[in-house]
Amino acid sequence: MLALSALDNIKAFAELEAAIIPGGGIYLINEGNTYTWRKASKAFDLNVFRVGDKINSNSIVFRAMEENKTLIQSIPAYIYGTKMIAIAEPVVNEDGQVVGAFSIIFPKLHPVLKSFNNFAPIMAEAFPEGAFILATDLEKVTHRQPSKKFDVPGLYIGCELDEEEIASKVIKSKQSVSIELDSSAYGVPTYVTAYPLFDEDDSYEVVATLGVAVPKITASSLRDMSENLESSLSRIASAIGGIAVSASHIHSNQQELNKEIKEIIELTEGIDEVSTFIKKIAEAIKMLGLNASIEAARAGEAGKGFGVVAKEIKKLSEQSKSTVLKIKELTNKIKEKVDETSMKSCISLSSSQEQADITEEITTSIQGITSMSVELNKIAHEL
């Protein structure tokens, strides 16, 4: 029990202790059923137990006054968001009557949170791209540690948790949760993981969470490059595939053209044979005309008409012979052109075959690179 006359000294002591006690605390004095004085440390405060508030009839303060003795009570985390220890001491007047109480509320920190300021700075700088470490109770952020390279200003001490926060999901599921966020959340792609911290006395009660946010700038850039590479290679492979099909068609057309040129050569050779045959006929006609002229000369006046016929036969023979020469000349020129075309066709045929082979090799190579880019993209997503 505390004497009413000692309250001023108690207030002075609480003012001093609130500034130095590890973890902080809230110091309260009530007169009757109303709080009349309050002092909270910077390290720990709650928006409850305000001056002017009435004492709850179920509270430890009310019971301490009723029973006129010092009481200590553990307050579960689900009531005010963090687990606490409350101590209530009755205050009596000179007549020994209970007129109020002096109470202290301390947060009961999880061992991990007690050592947060020791390990978090080291842990935050251990990642190549930096990291952001934070801890929460059941309602708000209680600890934060940015690194030199990475910070999340929006998650400040006292920031209340909403249902979408990863810490809220951890508290609800009582299991660790890991998610990958795009740049819309924290400005850069980020990998976030959080773990539940359980009450030392009740392994089923979550009292806090510990979270780590790691930026994935390099992995994001690598993923973007690999995706662009994969897309580009796919387009190139498709284009080369089209070229390969075209080259195959050209090769087929060249084969058909080469075949037709050979048939033309065979036809020109047939024309040569016909020309030779016509030439022979012309020579035979010429001989007939010559014989006819001889016989007409022997017959004299009687063979005069036959001589005219012989003359015409000879003339026809000369014309046939001249036509044969022209046909042969034209045939030779056609054959020369066909030979030139055939040679070029063979060269084109060979080139188109080489093009098709090279295109097929390029396509195979592109497919191999595409497979590698897919694997690269997979690795980037796993980083």
From TrEMBL:
InterPro entries: MCPsignal_dom. One of its GO terms (cellular component) is membrane. Residues 218-383 form the Methyl-accepting transducer domain. It comes from the Bacteria. Keywords: Transducer. One of its GO terms (biological process) is signal transduction. PROSITE patterns: CHEMOTAXIS_TRANSDUC_2. This is Methyl-accepting chemotaxis protein. It comes from Clostridium thailandense. The lineage of its organism: Bacteria, Bacillati, Bacillota, Clostridia, Eubacteriales.
